[in-house]
Amino acid sequence: MKPNDVILQTVTKVVTFIILTFAVYLFLAGHHEPGGGFIGGLVITSGLTLLYLAFDIESVRQGVPVDFKIVAAVGVFIAVATGMGSLLFDSPFLSQTYGYYNLPIFGETELATAVLFDLGVALAVVGTGVTIILSISGDA
Amino acid sequence: MHLLYFTLLVPFIMALLVPLLYKYVPRIHTGWFVLVVPIGIFLYMIELIPMIAKGKILVSSVPWIPSLGINYSVYVDGLALIFGLLISGIGALVVLYSVYYMSKKREALHNFYVYLLIFMGAMLGVVFSDNIIVLYMFWELTSIASFLLIAYWYQRKQSRYGAQKSLVITIFGGLALLAGLILLSVMTNTYSIREIITADLRGHQLFLPAMLLILIGAFTKSAQFPFHIWLPDAMEAPTPISAYLHSATMVKAGIYLVARFTPVFGGTIEWFWLVTGTGIITLLWGSFSAVKQNDLKAMLAFSTISQLGLIICLLGIGSSLYVTTAVFAALFHLINHSTFKGCLFMVVGIVDHETGTRDIRKLGGLMSLMPITFTLMIIGSFSMAGLPPFNGFLSKELFFTGVLEASKLNMYYLDTWGIVLPILAWIASIFTFIYSMILVLKTFTGKYKLSKYEIKVHEAPLGMLISPMFLAILILLFFFFPNTIANNLLQPAMSAILPGLLDGVGIENNIKIWHGWTTEVFMTLGVVVVGMLLYASLNKWSWIYEYLPAKMSFNYLYDRGLVGMEKLASQITKKYMTGIVRDYLLYIFIFFVLVVGGSLVLLNNFTYHPADNGSVSAYEVVLMLVIIGAAVLVMLTKSRLTAVIGLGVIGFVVAIFFVIFRAPDLALTQLVVETVTVALFMLCFYHLPELGKETEGAGFRTANLIVSLGVGIVVTLVAISAQSNALFDSISSFYEDSYQLAGARNIVNAILVDFRGFDTMLEILVLTIAGFGVYSLIKLPLHRRNNR
C-alpha cells in the first residue's frame, strides 16, 4: 500500500515555485550579485528533484515533458554558439559584450551577451544533473 | 647521375621486376634474368680496374638529406673495388649455380631472387658508400636480406631459429656500429669517410668508445669470437645462399669495415691487440671446432669463421704500419678465400643435392661416381689447407711471414708476447689441414655403400658444375699469376688501407711462389706432417671434443641467456604489475614523495615566513578543529555510513569556510554540490552487495600510513614554501575593474563567463559528458546482452 504523502506533496507544490523563482533570481542576478548559471542550474535541478521525490517519475514526466539529455546538449550548444557568434563580428572566439537599453517596462536596463552564455551553462547543468539522478534512480 | 649510381641501384630495380618475370614468364627459370645483373656489374667493375690501378679514385655524390649533411656519396678506390668485384663476380656464379640448384617447380623462386638481389644491392652499397649514415643503412639492409634468406625455407624450425639468431646478433652489432659511427661524426663533424680519415683523432676522449663500438659491429657481422655462433646456424639457408652470403660476401662486410677504418684507428695499441687478438682466437677456435663437425656445411661454416679470423688477424698486424706484408696478405687471402670457399660450398651443395645427405658419417666412396665433383673438392680443400699448387698456399705463406715479422717487432709488448702469434697460427693451420682432409677423404674415399643413400647417386649436371669449375680455375690461375692481381688490385687497395705510408710510392710486394728455404716453408712442412699424423690418429684423440665443447659452447650461453632474459623480464613484470590498483597507487605516491620531497630537501628550498601571514580568527580555529575531527572519524570509523556522513560534514564546513573567506558564489555552489555528492554516496552505499561487505575498519597497514603521511607532509611543506615564496604580485587587480570591462559587478561571474569563459565552456562539456557517461553506463549493460 502506498503511504500517504499528502503533506509532502502539498508542501512541494508550494515550495517548488519558491525554489524555481529563487533559481531564476540567482541566474539573473549572477552578473552583479552572487549567483549565476551554475548555481542557478543546480537550484533548478534541486527543485525538480524535490518534485521527483514527492511524486513519482512518470507523473513528473507528464508534467514536465522534457528529455533532459537534450536539455544538456542544447546548453552546450548555446554556450558554444555564443562563442561562435562573436566570430561574426570579427572578434576573437567567446568575446562578450554588453550595452544599456531603454526597455518599455524595465526602464534603462543592461543587456549582456554573457547572460546568453550563462544560459547555456545553466541548461547544461540542469540537463546533466537531472539525467544523472533519473538514470540512477531508474536503475534502482 | 653517374653511371656508377645506376650500377649500384640495378639490383634493386631488378628486385622489383623479378616477381613480374616469375609470374608472366613461367617457362624460363627466373634465375636467367637475374644473372644479367651481376654480370653487368662485374663487367663495369672490370672496366674501372685500369683507372684504379693508376692510383686514381672515383668520387661522386647525390643529395639525399642535404639539410642534415647526409648525401649518397660513392667512393671507388682499390679496397672498394676488390669487394665490388667479389660481390658481383661470386654473385654471378652463385646465380648461375642457383639456376640449376633451385627447382623451378618446387621453390618460391621470386622470393629467393628478390631477397638475393636486395642483398647484392645492399652489399654493393656498403662497400661503395662514402657517407657513414648511408653505409649504415645498407649495412642493416644486408642483415635483413640475410635474415630473409636464412629463413627461406620458413616451414623448418631450424631455419627460423638460425634466422632469428643471426638477426639478433648482427642487429646488435649493427646498432653498436651506428653508435660508433655517430661518435665518429661527432668527433670530426662530418659524415664523409674520406674526411674522417684525414682528421687526426688520437687522444680524443671519444676515440676509444668509437673504436670499440665499430669493432663490435665488424666482429658480429664477420662472425668473430665470441659472436661467431650465428654462422653455423645460418647454414639452414639454401646452399647458394651459404656460398654467397656466409662465405664470400656478407661475412666480409666486417672485414671491409676493419680495413676501411684502419687509417682512423690503426697504429694504436688498443686497435692492434683487439683486432689481432680477436682474429687469432677466432682462427684457432674456428679451426678447432670445425674438426668435430659431422655436417659438411657446419664444417665449412666453422672453417669460414676461422679463415675470417685469419684475415682479421692479418689486418690487425698490418695496422701497426710496420708489417705491410700483413695487409697485403689479408687482401690476398680475402680474394683467395672467396674463391675456394665459394667453390667448396657449391661442391658440398652438389653432394647434398645428388646424395640427399651432408652427414660425413653417411657419406663415403663417391670418388668414382662423382669424379668432377671430387676434383673440384680437392682443389678447394687443398687450397684451403694451404698446399701448392693452389692460391691458398701463397696466402698462407704470406700469413706466416706476417705473424713472424710481427713477433719480431719491438713494440706493443710484442717482444714478450709476440712469440704467441706464430705458434697459435701454426696450431690453427694444423687443424685447418685436418678438416680439409676430412672434407675430401671422408666424403669421397672409402667404400661406396649403396644402402646408405636414399637416392641414386650420380654426377651432377653440367650447369651446376660450371660455377665451381670456374672458381677452381681461378684458384689455379691465382697461384700461377699472383702478381697480376697484386699489381692491379691489391696495391691500390693497400694505399686505401694505409694511406699515410704509401703516398705515391708503391711498395714492392711481388709474390714469389718459391722463395727459398725460409722459416715459412718449414712451418708449412710441419703443418703437413703433423696434420697427417693427427688425421691418421683422429679416432684416438677425438674424445677431447666430447669433454670440451659441451662446457665451452657459446650456443649454450646464447640459448640460456635468451631464455633467462625472457624469464627475468616476465618475472620482473609479474613482480610489479600486480593488477591491484592499490599497488599502483602506492608506486605513484611513493614516486611523488621521493621526487617532490627529495627535490625539496636536496635543493634546500623550504622557506617559511610567518610574518606575511594574516591573523587567525577564532571561527577559523573552531572550524578547523571540526574538519580535523571529521577527517579522523572518516579514517577510523568502522562503518561506511559514518564515513559518508563524516565526508558530508567536511564538505559543509568547507562551505562555511568559503563564507568566512568571503566567497559567496563558492559557498552556494559548494553547499548544493556537497548535498548532491552525499546523496550519491548514500545511493552507492545502498547498492553495495551484501556479500563481502567490509564493515570492519579499513585494513590498517603501516606502509599505507607511512606513505599517506609522507604525501601529506610533502604537500604541506610545498604549500608553505610556495606561500612564502610569492615572487610577484597578484594580477587580480585587473579584474577589479570588471564593471568597466565587462559590465558586471560580480567579479567571479565576470571571470567565469567573460574573461575566462573558455574554461567554463569546456567545463560544462565535461559535465555533460559525465552525465551521458552515467546514462550510458546504466542504460547500456553490454554484459547482459552477451549473457542472453
TrEMBL record, chain A:
Localisation per UniProt entry: Cell membrane
Segment forming the signal sequence: none
Main location per the UniProt record: membrane
Segments passing through the bilayer: 6-28, 35-55, 70-90, 111-136
InterPro entries: CPA3_antiporter_subunitB, MnhB
UniProt keyword Membrane present: yes
Gene Ontology CC entries for this record: plasma membrane
Topology of the protein relative to the lipid bilayer: Multi-pass membrane protein
Superkingdom field: Bacteria
Protein keywords: Cell membrane, Membrane, Transmembrane, Transmembrane helix
Na+/H+ antiporter MnhB subunit-related protein domain: residues covered: 7-129
Matches recorded under NCBIfam families: PRK12573.1
Family stated for the protein in its record: Belongs to the CPA3 antiporters (TC 2.A.63) subunit B family.
Protein's UniProt name: Na(+)/H(+) antiporter subunit B
Protein species of origin: Desulforamulus ferrireducens
From TrEMBL, chain B:
Compartments it resides in: Cell membrane; Membrane
TM stretches of this protein: 6-25, 32-52, 72-100, 112-128, 134-154, 166-186, 206-231, 243-259, 271-291, 298-322, 328-351, 363-385, 419-441, 462-481, 521-538, 584-604, 616-636, 643-661, 667-688, 700-722, 764-782
Residue span(s) of domain MrpA C-terminal/MbhE: 701-779
Limits of the NADH-Ubiquinone oxidoreductase (complex I) chain 5 N-terminal domain: 65-113
GO molecular function: antiporter activity
The entry's keywords: Antiport, Cell membrane, Hydrogen ion transport, Ion transport, Membrane, Sodium, Sodium transport, Transmembrane, Transmembrane helix, Transport
Residue ranges occupied by any NADH:quinone oxidoreductase/Mrp antiporter transmembrane domain in the UniProt entry: 129-416
InterPro entries cross-referenced by the UniProt entry: CPA3_Na-H_Antiporter_A, MrpA/MnhA1/PhaAB, MrpA_C/MbhD, MrpA_C/MbhE, ND/Mrp_TM, Proton_antipo_N
Residue span, MrpA C-terminal/MbhD domain: 625-690
Protein name: Na+/H+ antiporter subunit A
UniProt lineage: Bacteria, Bacillati, Bacillota, Clostridia, Eubacteriales
